[in-house]
What does this fold into?
Amino acid sequence: MKKIFILLIINVLNNGLFAQTDSLPTPKTTSKPEQISSSRRELLASFLMDDPAGAGLWMDSLSRLEDETFAGLIWDERWLLHYWTESYGTLLEEVSRFDETQRAIQSWKTQPQQDSLFEWLDFALNEKRFELYSSIRNAFLSEEEKAFTTLLLEYLLRLNTNEEEWAERLQSFESHYPSSRFLAFVRSVKPLILKPTNMAFGISAGLLAGNWNGKIERTLNTPFMFHIDGLYWAKRWNFLFDFSVGGPKLTRDLLENEEIWPENDPTSFLLMGLNVGYDIVNAPKIRIYPSVGGGLGLLHPPTPDEDEDPLPEYYDNFRFRSFHLNAALTADIKLFQKDYREWNAPKGSYHGIRLKFGWNGLRFSQQNPSLQGEMFYFAVNYNVFAYLSTQ
It folds into this structure.
């Protein structure tokens, strides 16, 4: 059935498909791209008919047609054909001379018109790759050449799906054969694997909802704030700066120096903190760390915009400052860890959700008894955590 299927495929190709000569059966007036397309069809026919001799003739024709402007065969097509014909000597000689300059020259040429030659080569050699491995082992090649020929086959057939494993195998070849003539090619296809250090940076932003405890609960509405934090991480230690800003309204008149900040007025409420934490859990899917530190809290009437009426002068009496202690428990849910390559970061870096339970021991009461109390909060942030690289 397989042979019948192949013959049916061949039957639908253009006239003259089965001609096996080393000259082109096309008029001299035919353009170079048309001659190349015709020769590639003949080459495909020879390949499908399992005719290496015929395929060799058409490869020679395409080589003669190729010049500084037009490409007859793409380099990976030609190399797959060398594997098919077991022409390992020719293959290795070509590869040893194929550097970045040669790759660039190939790419600048006008490429052949779209056809199915590469797809058939790729499909057929993938199907018989185990036979090719056996052929390479039994070929009259040195151990270095056998090792490289096997690596090259996996590269051409795109079997090197695990970048880290692939980079390690290429590095192993480089280490075993430091004077190999194939090192230029090996280095050109070796992926850059960034190795993480014991240091990282992180940043997150999101929303914070607070809850008052003490007299301040009767003075201010529940605070809903924008929250952002920056992180430097080193050997499980976390050094954080966090910033929150919001504007809860007054729920009752606030008295200060016999002046009144009236109920329902908006406020400007700002928190800044410096904290130190330590990872108690750092698993593939979650990272948890407690932190403690100190902070600064500011509470005052909001500054009016340019087109708004200025605040009464006595509002300057309602500017409160609090130096206080902080504590928090943070959990990072690690998502999108496979995307680290896209933002050029080492493995282990991640995007994810940050959940933060915290406490601010506010001390506004030193300036006004009605502001006595603390704030507990819960924050939900989107977090980016990136390891620094050794390279």
Observations:
- Residues 2-189 form one domain.
- Residues 176 and 344 are 29 Å apart (CA to CA).
- Confidence is low (pLDDT under 50) at residues 1-27.
